Task: structure prediction
Amino acid sequence: MIHSLFLINASGDIFLEKHWKSVVSRSVCDYFFEALERATEPENVPPVIPTPHHYLINVLRHRIYFVAVIQSEVPPLFVIEFLHRVVDTFQDYFGVCTEAAIKDNVVVVYELLEEMLDNGFPLATESNILKELIKPPTILRTVVNTITGSTNVGEQLPTGQLSVVPWRRTGVKYTNNEAYFDVVEEIDAIIDKSGSTITAEIQGVIDACVKLTGMPDLTLSFMNPRLLDDVSFHPCVRFKRWEAERILSFIPPDGNFRLLSYHVSSQNLVAIPVYVKHNISFREGSSQGRFELTLGPKQTMGKAVESVLVSSQLPRGVLNANLNPSQGTYTFDPVTKLLSWDVGKINPQKLPSLKGSMSLQTGASKPDENPTINIQFKIQQLAISGLKVNRLDMYGEKYKPFKGIKYMTKAGKFQNDCHLLVIQKIAG
Amino acid sequence: MLGMSANSVSYNEQGSVESGVDAAQENSSIPGSISSGGAASSLFSADYKKNEDLKEMLESNKESLKLEAMKRIVGLIAKGKNASELFPAVVKNVASKNIELKKLVYVYLVRYAEEQQDLALLSISTFQRALKDPNQLIRASALRVLSSIRVPIIVPIMMLAIKEAATDLSPYVRKTAAHAIQKLYSLDPDQKEHLIEVIEKLLKDKSTLVAGSVVMAFEEVCPDRIDLIHKNYRKLCNLLVDVEEWGQVVIIHMLTRYARTQFVSPWREDAVFDENSAKAFYDSEEERRVDQSKPYIMDPDHRLLLRNTKPLLQSRNTAVVMAVSQLYWHLAPKHELSIITKSLVRLLRSHREVQYIVLQNIATMSIQRKGMFEPFMKSFYVRSTDATHIKTLKLEILTNLANEANISTILREFQTYVKSQDKAFAAATIQAIGCCATNISEVTDTCLNGLVLLLSNRDETVVAESVVVIKKLLQTQPSQHSDIIKHMAKLFDNITVPMARASILWLMGEYCEHVPKIAPDVLRKMAKTFTDEEDIVKLQIVNLAAKLYLTNSKQTKLLTQYILNLGKYDQNYDIRDRTRFIRQLIVPNEKSGALSKYARRILMAPKPAPVLQSAFKDRDRFQLGTLSHTLNSQASGYLELSDWPAVAPDQSVRNVEVVEPVKETGAPALSKSKHAKSNEKFYSDSEEEDGEEEEGSNSEDSSSSSSEESVSESESEENSDDSNKSSSSQSEKSSSESDSEKKKTLKNKKPQQQKLDSKDRKQKNGNAVKVESRSESESGSESSSSESSSESGSELDSDSDSGTDQKKNTKPKPVQSKPVIKVEKKEVSLLDLDDFSPVPVTTPKSSILSPNLLSDLQGLLISPTASALQASSPVFVPETSHELLHRMTGKGLSAQYRFTRQPCIYGNSMVSLQLTLSNSTDQALENIHISEKSSTGQNIHRFNAIERLEPQASVTVSMGVDFNDSTQAANFQLCTKEDEFSVSIQPAVGELLLPITMSEADFTKEQGKLVGMNESSATITMTPENVSSQSVNRKVVSVANLGVIPSGQENIYRFSGKTVSSGSLVLVSVVLKDPDAVITINTEKTVMGSMLLRQVKTALTNSGP
Result:
């Protein structure tokens, strides 16, 4: 299974290595660097790179390459999924997963990696278990440890490791018992230049923050469970119950976790909450181009569209853009040719617009690519699919918890770290 | 040196890697610590000094300093710096109480032990001790580290530790054992056979925690031993949902392979749809002809697997979803396949790397079964933010999905892609269009026209790619497309990409008859620029010239000659060769002979059109979801997925019988033979070891005993074994005699038993034969012979007490003890490397070394004044007997038992019992015996059946029970001719001990070794009448079978004993402090310790005799 792990930063330095079996020389990463050089973009490095004696499987997150070295046949997704889990754990522990954070906490990182894999096979990846084995570093604890000499390493095997509910620790106690659920939906859509939708999909997740004492057993039911076309669950959810009754029944992990992710079938008509009017033109022979863009809300059930961010990759021939936004601010990067416009909130009475001219390279012919426009936005208190939670019940404990459910719709994400591309408009 | 820690910021510039270390340093303001920052990069001397400092810190008394040093060392390791010279300093801290420090030392050890093998051995004993810690986390981590230290010399110790841990009560420890199996296997593949035994045992484990890890070990060590899975197949299927996600992946992959060997193909009915596997198609056709009347019925086990994996498609873990998908792909009937589609498409919303793998697999699937993914075509539309390799894969899939119905949609989508700013992607799109055009004849013309339009594109790569694709398309139907060729000729001047230019030239030459006017003109132009062209273009110029010379020599003769002359002096030898060849071929002269006659036919031969096909066409030879599939080449360790068997193997092998240990079939029988084999090997090994030393010095005693054995085994065993045994057993004896005092002390335990041996053996052999004949009826003669050989193998050990147990233990079950001498030898070879270096270290095969014994021995070896642990006779034998069977329930037969507190004659690990049977009826009872079937795991030595018990008579018989050092009751059936009565014997903890005597000094020393978790104590208030020394002694020995140690101090009483089964020391001391008394019990068997404590407590607090 996983032989070694190398962490490589954006500038190509190996800043951490960990071996679970015999030491593999870091020169094996040279094959990775070769691939990195060949790739035009950081994302273009192939995830699996064969070398004469090893195979390198890498993931790129937070501008750090996590390169796993393996020696023999193993399902590649196994490794990839694990590496992402490592990143998630780091993020969970240190708040951010950056090179600096990893270096600052190198000992904790090492202890974590030691617990997560044994001989290259995952041992404990459940965050609740890890947190009992190795306490996350906090400023207070660091100070206390320095003074008292106590450690942040647990002495007992976490009870969860052995129980049937490995995701929950025992003896959880809160004075305020609360359970919050966020229904967050994202729209992925491609709209062509005439404004008709090519594809539109809604993906949703229910993220939970559960702080309940003891061993609560929760059930969550929906008003319209049929909307959910394809679901994937946190391991705590009882699948049989869902199959039979379309009810989510589970003993929740303690703290934050993703209960459910779902997909609303594309058969259902997706109402796109925002529209774009645009006019981007270049005249043949002239070094000037016109740029006009107007945004407007549509079908938002009266909810405000917020945090709107428009971005567009302008053609390479564009030297500069001189634009005038009716609200918000815009930036244009003459090197990457990326135009981004931070609109803010859309006011239906006064639609935001961005107008102006672009200067083109003199002598260059009219660019023939069509710039795509990506839009990102948020709508609070609205699940665009219409999904509604019916009720949340708790069994197994006596107290009355505080329950809260929040809805939000936002622009889709294609990669975890990049919330950019929402509505892709092929203009032209 | 001292001041450097003050400001770490300045170092961060140089080596920001150090910042972690520096930050940690700042937090704990240690006076005199040095920054490891800039110094590291500067000089070796600085490096050296820095490590000196770490060494000092490690050797200090302060825990915090040590911890700090370790943290910095871990920082060094993380950066890949060499910290190996600190090994001696670090390894000292391996036994630290501070758990974090200990863990960091473990990290260090695992990293460097391989390089510093000798020093690493120093730490081994710590782990061995920790292996017996009551805290399961500590046991597990000790095993983890011990097995991670890649030092070949400790292989035997690892083996023992694994075997021990495999039977641990904690599933977490057993899981660790499963991981350790793989580590040991990679360290020493020779251990395979024994590891397989452990794997087999662990496969039976019912804990979900263990399942994934042991299957992983199985896959790594013995993936071909599919027979081990049979019995566990259903259990694995049923557990699967509850196994942790990583284990699920491994188990699913394994079960996929398993199912392909065990079930018949479910694809018969609809094999027709399977476009690609023509072979399968024909097979099934034949099949149908043969048994047309018999429709396919899926094996229920096959269905079980499919049913139980289906919910996992909803897992959040992408690897699990992919694993289930591939399982369905390879195992499910084709019409059930569609359920995986949605889940796979869902995975496309995950991370980029996940998309990459999933898309690859979809690409392979979509070639064979378009229908699966067609409804989701839009999910494969390319987004501008996709990485290039994702885009290419999506394109591949879209091309595969294209059919007459959707081609227009796809082509429209492709048009957008061609305009993409990513030119490599645009080029790939053009290729894809070409593919669609050849695959779907309706759109060939449309595509061709579209491509021709692209020729006027401003981007060179796009144009070049179009030319290449057009060339391929034209080859399929050249006659109608002279316009296009002409158009391309016109474009020729503007195209600079060599590949495109070469393609156009080739087209000109190939179809020069369609464009008779243009072709010579192109050649004329090329003659001018020949020297400036790329090699690939030059070759095509030569080709074009040759073809034109043959078709139109009037116009092109001179041109051709000119070009051939240029080519003759070209720098590239390929071009020179080609020129020479062409000249000889086309220009007739005397030397060229017959060949030039055929020149036209050679050069102008009609060429088959290239087939444009997917790069994923042949990927289905690999199992989906594997690394090999991703790379499209076989990765090391790839396990081939076998074809479906034509006829399903016996289904009954998967039947799991209700536990009836004697009547095991199938896999267990096989394992028995393995077992036997390993035994043989064991002995032949030992022969190698000892034979040289001891050849031919057989003593009368041992040879006679072995010949006795050979009677029972002669049918199956080779004669040579005979001498092996005698010589090896002989050598054991003589070596132990000659060697040293310490061994003598061990020997002392034996003589009393040896007397009994021969008689004992006879009985056992009788038993063994019985067992054999039973197993024979089940599993054929092979197993019976192997059975007997294993039987006789273990026989040999009986003087060192393991064999007896194994006898009746028909299940392969861990045996508690092992040949003592062997252990010692191993220890010697471990520590005295020089003396014994050539001796191959053999591992105990059939039996497990009891850890306590091992540590005892270690104690012996390390201290020259070995303590004399001498078994002694019991101080006190209680007369009380316990009821086993009341005469009411026993229909007149009553039975009572009492513990004799004597070493059991039937086996060293057995507790001796006396059974009094009386008949209170008025008829004689016949054939009173204990049933062969034992419902619990205990080993019971039965008394010989009593043929007849007269009315009102009673008889006393003795029996032995191996309680395995636990107070779990032994249940068995007491039978008469007519009836069976279930009875059980519940031993008190004190009866599981045997007294030993030792000196007071030894007692204190042993007690010193068994501290910490091995010690339990309590304070009680004594009743006044108990305070006298006599009463204390009496009370304690009545509760437990312990020996009294003469005490020098008045108020301290000491008692010692060992557990019957494993021989662990049990030390009890009672310290009187008026009016209180402190009872302390030291033993490795902590459970027993605490139980014993409770009983002693009650005994001492109760008044009365």
Remarks:
- Chain B touches chain A through 106 residues (CB under 8 Å).
- Confidence is low (pLDDT under 50) at residues 1-46, 270-293, 659-868 of chain B.
